[in-house]
Amino acid sequence: MGGGGVLRLNDPDVGQNPAYGAHDPGMMWDPRSGHYYCYSTDSYAPKAGLGKKPGIPVRVSGDLVHFTYAGTVLSPASVRQGRDNGEYPPAQGFWAPYGEYAGDEYRLYYSATRDFGSSESRIWLAVAQDPMGPFENRGVVVDSWGTDDSLPNAIDPHVLHTPEGKDYLIYGSFFGGIYMKELSPDNGMPVDPDPCFLGQCVAHKMPPPALDGPEGAAALYCPETGYYYLFFSYGWLGDGYDIRAGRSEHPLGPYLDFQGRDLVGASLGLKLANSYIFRAKAPRAKSGGGWHWGGLRGPGHGVPFYDPVRGRYFFVHHIRDGNPKDRRYDPIFDRHSYRHHYMMIRPMFFVDGWPVLGPEPFQGESMEAVTPPDGAMWEVIVLDDRSNGMKTSGNVRLTADGYLLRHSVCYRCADFENGGQTLAFTGIDEFGQTCWGKLTK
After folding, report:
1. For the chain, what is the largest distance between any 2 Cα atoms, rounded to a whole number of angstroms?
2. Cβ neighbourhood burial of 148 (10 Å; 0-12, 13-18, 19+)
3. What is the average pLDDT across 325-341?
């Protein structure tokens, strides 16, 4: 299947750069066609030059590298029904969809929300016989319309499957935290038919909140480690967004961080990614137009997935171009936002039972682990928890038997910032901080 390859910054032509404009992306591998389908938030589509037809945008790939923007997938009847909220104002956008093939049908969970920043939303389940739709609404899975901000927002759906055959909806945002409720594997709808039944809280911000969050949650069971993993984001969407994780021995928790602290009110989780900058000679971008390399900002709302073709784990999320010329200041909230966002896919590994993300976007590498060179100079980024500001790199000479490289995965990959090939590593240091590195050039 054709379409653009790995993301190019400063290129808003979605026809040539399909990664552009994909917000809150989720990834599904279709066992029937052998293709990958990335569904994303609807309200950003017109801004990305994708036309004004609502109904959940989709990007399609045959190799997880080259994608094509392929339109929207909700039926007109589902769009009308999803926007109609009776006595309440109509939904302004469809957000954060999650698609999967289950029960001989394609299921698409999505949120219909009142507006950006609102806690009033509904999560719908729509079904189809084709991953391109048309998806028809089956029913409301959870409803937070008409509630106050102390309760969870019915937004950002994801589904966790257990080895025992139980399914759980993960949803929620920083208003009331992240919740799980059981679904029926037969039809994907809740076991408790009351859409106002919330389920169980599995993550909640600490008092007082140092960062917005948690939100954009997803969960995964890893049979290789025997743990359930909960992924989520904290921080401001337009700049200081991040990706974090906790783990549990049980699907409903408790989910704990690296130090064993509960994600419900006691921890922000293990940080896996936030705004960062590697030194760059020629990052993939269009020339001209006053564009400047400023790193990558606000990775967030990530979804883990297992690729049965490669037999490997990946993680898809959105990220923003750190070009300072595209930064805008909001005087009301006294914060900056970076405008242009993209879909990014990273390899995901497990180190000592914890997930870590590759420091470079996936570009088709085999990702086989290699022995790191002894005493080489690495460009290293430490994803510390002191702030969610930009993490810059420094040169560090590392021995192959040192703690960091012994507790890391080292692999050969494409160098996004400089071109060509390089070695990269991702791991966790003795302080429980994620560290990224690649060989200096």
Report:
1. 67
2. exposed
3. 86
